[in-house]
Write a structure and sequence with these properties.
The protein has 337 residues and is of the alpha/beta class. The protein has 11 helices and 14 strands.
């Protein structure tokens, strides 16, 4: 349930409603926007108590939230959430660009790519230190040494760094090294990991699961938020379908659907979404027009020699050319809104 305050509400009015709800043993979630204040009720409340709240001063109405996710629901939080990482913002009309190799391979490689993507306009550097691979014989990443190399690249460029966390056992190291924790598609429903990340205040990129519905995805975000961390960025990275011409099927319809039902920012990963470098630019442009809050692009200085996902990585030169188009399209899109 949500309590919608009318436009003349005061802090005392909010405190009165919140106190009444908490006195009934329930939790609240207060969201103040530019012209609205919404108080979310977490838990079951009786009809009698709802009637008493409805009669309080400055309460406009009470509405029922049908979806099982509450904190991630736009009804609970009408205004767009903006995640701010070292003054780089994602959400609320801010387009964040995350770029870098699938896997960190060496200091020379990650520093060179970091410099190049920054020069082209990237806001964040991505790089996998721990790599979940389908085959146990594939390159698994440089692990903790990979995180150290990411830090060197950050010191050289100032770019905030994004890397995937696969196990709770490495959470402390991630807290001390990365700026944004990525939860990969295979771990979207690793609820223990989600809850542990939720107990931190570190921004989280939550990738959609391989075959997950949008509701399941938002419920995974709810696990993180219920534990206390609301700095979440959703990432559409394609879902598994019967199609074989692409690695996955990039579900761009998820962007407006998420925008309607949730206040959380949503970014798109066209590299994993298509699995082929030649489709990355067109899907990036389409994602922007569809209303995404950012892009996550795999960039490698020598894709043919990449230790992971070279076939879907674009070169720094291709990234630079694409960024020029993205800036123009993004500006046009803002002017049309």
């Amino acid at each position: 349930m949500i309590v919608v305050m009318d436009k003349n509400y005061t802090s005392d009015n909010i405190n009165q409603v919140v106190k009444y709800i908490k006195d009934k043993g329930l939790e609240t979630n207060v969201s103040k926007g530019k012209s609205k204040c919404v108080i979310g009720i977490l838990g079951n409340i009786s009809v009698e108590n709802l009637e008493k709240i409805s009669a309080m001063k400055c309460v406009e109405k009470i509405s029922k939230v049908q979806e099982p996710y509450k904190k991630a629901n736009r009804l609970f939080h009408p205004e767009d959430t903006v995640v701010n990482v070292n003054n780089s913002k994602i959400g609320g009309g801010n387009l964040g660009i995350i770029a870098g190799p699938c896997a960190v391979e060496s200091e020379e490689q990650i520093v060179e790519i970091a410099r190049q993507v920054k020069d082209s306009g990237a806001d964040f550097l991505r790089g996998g230190a721990f790599k979940p691979r389908t085959s146990p014989y594939s390159f698994q990443g440089l692990e903790l040494n990979g995180l150290k190399l990411m830090q060197i690249a950050k010191a050289e460029t100032g770019l905030a760094i994004v890397s995937e966390l696969m196990s709770v056992s490495y959470l402390d190291e991630f807290m001390n090294t990365v700026d944004v924790i990525q939860i990969g598609a295979r771990n979207m429903q690793n609820y223990d990991l989600l809850k542990q990340v939720g107990r931190t205040n570190k921004p989280v990129i939550l990738k959609r699961g391989l075959s997950s519905t949008i509701e399941e995805w938002l419920l995974s975000a709810e696990h993180i938020m219920a534990a206390g961390n609301e700095n979440i960025i959703l990432c559409e990275r394609g879902i598994r379908t019967f199609e074989t011409y692409t690695r996955n099927t990039l579900d761009l319809s998820a962007i407006p659907v998420v925008k309607k039902h949730s206040h959380l920012p949503i970014i798109v990963d066209p590299s994993h979404g298509t699995g082929h470098s030649q489709y990355v630019e067109s899907m990036s442009m389409a994602a922007i027009v569809a209303g995404c809050d950012g892009l996550m692009i795999e960039v490698h200085n020598n894709p043919k020699q990449a230790l992971s996902d070279g076939q879907q990585s674009i070169t720094p030169n291709e990234f630079d050319k694409m960024m020029k188009k993205i800036k123009l399209l993004s500006e046009l899109d803002r002017n049309l809104k």
